[in-house]
Each structure stands twice: as structure tokens, then as C-alpha cells.
Amino acid sequence: MPDDTSQHVEKINSERNKMLEALFTAQSIILAEIAATTSAGPYLSRLVDRRNAITMERNQVIDAADAAVLNLPTVQAALSNLEKLTKEATAEANVMKTTTDKITRATNLLNIAHKFTDLITTRLE
Amino acid sequence: MENIGNWSKCAFAFTVCLTVSSCSPYVYSEQVGKYNTAVSNLRSNYSATAESINNDSTLKDHMDWLIIRPELKLGLGCTGTAPKANPCALTMGSEVPTAPGSPPAERRDPKKDPKKDPNEILKVLNNYTAALVSLTNAEDSAAFDAAASKASTAVSSLAAAADLPLSAVIKPAGNFLFWLIGQKLDYDRLQALHETITAADPSIQVLSVALKTSLSGQNEKQQGNLLDLLGSQIKYANILATRKSNSDANYSTALDAAQATAARFAAVHTMDMEAVASSVGQAHTELKVAIMSNDGQWSALEGSFETLIDNVSALVKAANPPPVAPATKSGATE
Questions:
Q1: Subunit contact A66:B217, Cβ cutoff 8 A
Q2: How confident is the model at residue B297 (pLDDT cuts 50, 70, 90)?
Q3: Total domain count for chain A?
């Protein structure tokens, strides 16, 4: 188990979750206030603006945590390693297809040679 | 010298194939295929959820505008100079289009910086599992055998046409030679499968840990958006309820929409995204153990796959819940 990565990711997730929890509380308060506001007007508009700002803030916190994890050297190294292994495995899988193609092309040539030989033999007879 | 080395390897492969019960990569085809399908579904669900979050956000704006009837304006993307990543959309409040010639506000384009896109992890994982599927594709071996058989027949026919004295033994010799080549190619694929899975496992474990952040983050975003949308839908339904000119049908539709969003929120809220991410790593480890031990002990592997498949299925179901029955319509007077 990649303990080093786990610790880093857990720390990032923990910090992110604390922020999200605080923002969730703020979001809930605003939503309750929106529900309690009986008439449309500048106050309701401001509440909606505030709620949208909180949601944007939540999304930015989430994006920042994603970026922090993706930028961890171990994660970048794992992505690179997996991409390299994928290329190698794909190349190895294609060797049999390439060989099959070569055999098919050679067979076509042999069939042409066969027809040619038949033609020559017929003419000589 | 290289040819001699290759043929020694081939002879070794042949010997191994005679002594080992399972020397074909194709026996793992089903298991590798299941793993690929689960990862592929996870990846497409991630993209579908991202799309759904955007749609919910647009719907939420629509509901808000119905409620507060603001003065609408053109969004930042509605200028000729706006980056293509900025879609043209209506906005309210302080967001105004930039003046012609001034630099438009930047919105991050994941295509420009692919490593910053959380879906990159799933993309790399999915490409990897697809490569494993290629290695275990028995159809390639069958195509090779068919081509080899045709080639052997062609050689024999040509030898007979040319009246070569050894034409009777050329075809059997050709068949054996092609069989040996096919065995070596199969053996190489099996070796590649072993080596790839072993070398990839530590990276898969790192990425499954990183995936916890991506998946749980997306889940949090979706929950936040659904909660906002639900708040707006309830508010709108309450406004309709107090309007004297409003019909029961409109009120009923508004209630149904709010109930559907509440059901979606409940489904998304109960998902354990960290368990989903962990099951990706766990299933790979079991796949590695099963392939390396090569003793037919698939029970642990099947258990891990079931967990992974169940987790992904639950995720897809939560993202696409069945429509809520319009129970409120029974009391409505049209």
C-alpha cells in the first residue's frame, strides 16, 4: 500500500472536508433564509447571489483538492508509469496482428505465384 | 545469432506449454474483460455526472429566475473574443460581457492541461485495462491460425504446381512451423500480461488512492448543486401554491420536479465514493494474484470483482435514478 501517498491524500481530503463542512453550514443557513423569505425583491436576490457564491466557493475548494492530489509526485509518476506500460502492452498485443498481416500478404503473393506457375505449365504443355 | 536466440526461446516456450497446464493468455480473457468493463463504466459515469452537474446548475438558474425575475444579461462567453471553453449563457447580477478588445476572463480548459483534469486518472486506468484486453484477445490468435493455415496450403499448392519432389511433406512441415510460431506469440503475450500486471500494480494502488479525492469531490459537487436546485424548486412550488391564478397542474408538476430532485439527492448522498475507489485497487491486486499463482483459485478474484461491479452499478444507478411516481397528481383537480 502506498503509505506515503495515502497520508498525503488523506490530509488533503481531511482539509477539504473541513472546509466543505463549514461551507455546507453556510449554504444551509442561506437556503433556510431563502425558504423563509416570502416575497421576491432585492433581499431575495442578494440571498440567491450569496448562495451561488458559496456554491462557487465549494466547487473551488473541491477543484483545489483535486489539483493538489493530481500534482503529487507519486501520482504523476504512477500516471506516467501506467501510460508507459499501456504502450508496451499494446505494442506486444499488436505483434501477433502484425505477424498475421505479414502471413496474409505472403499468402497472397504465393497464390499469385501459383497462378503464374499454372499459366507457365499450361503453356509449356 | 538473434534468430538462434529467438528459436531457443520458442523451444523453451514450447516445452513450458507442454508442462504447464495453462500457458495461454486467453484463459484470463473473461476476468480481464470484466475489470475493463467496470473501469470503463466508472469513467463514463464520471463524465456523465459532470454533464449532469452542469445541467442541474443551468436548471437551478432557470428556477431562480422564475422566482426573482431579475434583469438578465449576456454572460462572459457571449462575445466574439471569448475562449471556446466559455459557453455563451444568460446571467444575472454583476457578470457582464467584457468590452471588445479587452482580455476575456479565463476559464480553465482541461484539454489544455490534461494532468489537471480529475478524469485523467480514469482515462489512464481505462487505457491500461483496454491494453490488457488486447493482450488476452483470443480472436487475434484465431486470426493468426487461419492465416497460417491458408499460407501453409498456398505453399503446398505452389510446390505441387511446380512439381517439387518434397511437396507432400511441405504442408505438414509448414503447419508445424506456424504452430510453433503461434505458440511463441501466445507465450510472449502471456509473459507480457504477467509482467505488465505486476509492474502496474503499485501504480494502480497509488491511483486508486488518488481516485478517492476525485470521486468524492465530484460527489460533493453534485450534492451541493442538487441541494441548491432543490431549494429553488421548493421555493418555486411554494410561490405557485400561494398564487390564486395558478392551476393545480402547474403546482403538481413543480412538486414532482422537487420530489425527483430530492430522490436524486438521497441516492447521491448515500454513495460511498471512497469504497468505489478502493475496490478498483483491490480488484487489480486480486487479478494479479490470480494470474501469478495460475492455480485456478478465482474465488477471491470473483469476490473483488463483484464488489467493484456492485459499487460501479450503484454509482450509475444513483446518477440515473428511476423517475419518481407523480403521487401528488391523484389529489389534483385538472
A1: yes
A2: low
A3: 1
Assigned domain for A16 exists: yes
Which among B199, B221, B231 is the nearest to A59, CB-wise?
B221
| Tens of pLDDT, residues A11-41 | 999 999 999 999 999 999 999 999 888 888 8
Full residue range of the structural domain in which residue A45 is found: 3-71
Cα-to-chain-centroid distance, residue B147: 34
Q: What is the pLDDT of residues A72-115, one digit of tens each?
A: 999 999 999 999 999 999 999 999 889 999 989 988 888 887 77
Contact call for B224 and A24, based on CB within 8 A: yes
Half-sphere exposure (Cβ direction) of B137: Cα atoms closer than 13 Å? 20
Interface contact B227-A16, CB threshold 8 A: no
Alpha helices in B20-136 (DSSP H): 29-68, 119-135
Residue A92 lies in a domain: no
Chain A and chain B share a number of CB contacts under 8 A equal to 198
Assigned C-alpha cell, B300: 477471491
Could you report the predicted ipTM of this complex, rounded to two decimals?
A: 0.87
Q: Is B186 left (phi over 0), alpha (psi -120 to 50) or beta?
A: alpha
Which residues make Cβ contacts (< 8 Å) with residue B14, sequence separation at least 6? B180, B183, B184
Give A17-23 contacts, CB < 8 A, sequence gap 24+.
Answer: A19/A61, A20/A58, A20/A61, A20/A62, A20/B220, A23/A54, A23/A57, A23/A58, A23/A61
A107 touches chain B (CB under 8 A): yes
Residue B100 has what pLDDT?
41
- Please tell me the distance from the alpha carbon of residue B284 to that of residue B255, in angstroms, as a whole number: 45
Compare CB distances from A9 to B68, B203, B210 and report the shortest one's residue. B210
Of all residues in chain A, the one with the smallest CA distance to B162 is A117
* Enclosing H/E stretch for B73: strand B72-74
A19 at interface of B, judged by CB pairs closer than 8 A? no
Give me the count of residues in chain B: 334
Q: Which residues of A touch B193 (CB under 8 A)?
A: 89
d(CA A118, CA A121): 5
Angle at B310 between CA B309 and CA B312, to 5 degrees: 65
Buried b (16+ CB within 10 A) or exposed e, B280-306: bbbbbbbbbebbeeeeeeeeebeebbe
Task: State the Cα–Cα distance between residues B212 and B273, nearest whole angstrom.
Answer: 7
